[in-house]
Amino acid sequence: xxxxxxxxxxxxxxxxxxxxxxxxxxxxxxxxxxxxxxxxxxxxxxxxxxxxxxxxxxxxxxxxxxxxxxxxxxxxxxxxxxxxxxxxxxxxxxxxxxxxxxxxxxxxxxxxxxxxxxxxxxxxxxxxxxxxxxxxxxxxxxxxxxxxxxxxxxxxxxxxxxxxxxxxxxxxxxxxxxxxxxxxxxxxxxxxxxxxxxxxxxxxxxxxxxxxxxxxxxxxxxxxxxxxxxxxxxxxxxxxxxxxxxxxxxxxxxxxxxxxxxxxxxxxxxxxxxxxxxxxxxxxxxxxxxxxxxxxxxxxxxxxxxxxxxxxxxxxxxxxxxxxxxxxxxxxxxxxxxxxxxxxxxxxxxxxxxxxxxxxxxxxxxxxxxxxxxxxxxxxxxxxxxxxxxxxxxxxxxxxxxxxxxxxxxxxxxxxxxxxxxxxxxxxxxxxxxxxxxxxxxxxxxxxxxxxxxxxx
Length: 457
Description:
One of its GO terms (cellular component) is membrane. It is found in: Membrane. Keywords: Glycoprotein, Kinase, Leucine-rich repeat, Membrane, Receptor, Repeat, Signal, Transferase, Transmembrane, Transmembrane helix. Its main location: membrane. The protein is an alpha/beta fold. It has three domains: 23-169, Leucine-rich repeat, LRR (right-handed beta-alpha superhelix) (Alpha-Beta Horseshoe), CATH 3.80.10; 194-288 and 427-457, Leucine-rich repeat, LRR (right-handed beta-alpha superhelix) (Alpha-Beta Horseshoe); 297-410, Alpha-Beta Horseshoe (Leucine-rich repeat, LRR (right-handed beta-alpha superhelix)), CATH 3.80.10. The chain has helices spanning 2-20, 26-35, 240-243, 290-300, 306-311, and strands at 55-57, 63-67, 74-75, 89-91, 96-100, 112-114, 119-122, 136-138, 161-163, 187-190, 203-205, 210-213, 226-228, 233-237, 250-252, 257-260, 270-272, 279-280, 324-327, 330-335, 357-359, 366-367, 381-383, 388-391, 401-403, 409-410, 451-453. The strands form five sheets. An eleven-stranded mixed β-sheet has the order 1-2-4-6-8-9-10-12-14-16-18. It is flat, with a radius of gyration of 25 Å.
């Protein structure tokens, strides 16, 4: 029997080797399959990777596309991925892939990298080296350790789109992000948290890009005089730290999706905010409806999603606000299913005392279910299925239907921080958040930059 097993093992190796000649990239692809623990349902069982689902090869049997986004894959990426020298598209978005990103050094045919909404922890310094054909990069919503956009990205002279929201970029925004290095770059997107640590800035011009998410904390920018953020997709409230900035002389916030009360700057500040070009609750400064304040407090832990901000217009959430259902002016249903939400579940949901159904299913929410939600007197349904939640499920009354399916770590303790905000503070009428602004990342070094100009069109 022992000899037979040895013979079969040897035969299997020969069989695999013979078939792997069908594609020069077979060794790398089998490494990828193994490291991602690819399930049989994906259809990667054929000895020739060119016959796999979501994989495209050239006539020469070279792998040109790997398109396995939204497949609920886990594991890590193999270090030999850079040997796929004819690869044009690498699409791994919306999975649970973890570990460090491998170097893609030398993949001169690679045009598109989609890695958003995974669990990657680091970016190698040579990640962009030699990517001369690269046109689009999306690495949003990954728990990277602090990293600086490397100068090697200058090799990607064909770059048109760079999106890195919630990607923990530290240091200064590179000065080489301009038309000289990237003549085709028309849109920069993602958040701008990094500028809150650039404490010597005097002018920030980030207009006419694709930046999104909440505005950062401006309290440390004591020398900031001019701020132009118009024509982007910023959401959330205008922070008091910006409104109260004594050095500020010029501010331009038109054509965004800013929410809450319209801010009131000092009379010495030249303000450009075109009427109805944001999502302020009122066309003039004043108090927002208490229901508006509560809903904005709820979505703060989700970084004020753009899809919600685009729909939430006016001062009455019972008038066609997406995801909101009311009865006699009382919010009874919040349905955010399949809205691509990230972040955590806010304890502020407990402030919606009339809530009967809370549906957050099929998103990418993390953290745990807040204990405060159990205090809702009329709650009948809580559906948080198919997210990335962990921790103990709070004890609800017997008449509440709770669905937590599709959260692999539910009931388990995971070392990860969750929201600790208390449902007691609402947005003020004068400024936005009642706080400094977004400050999700901390511990970064200050920059000595005096001027940032990023105006591409």
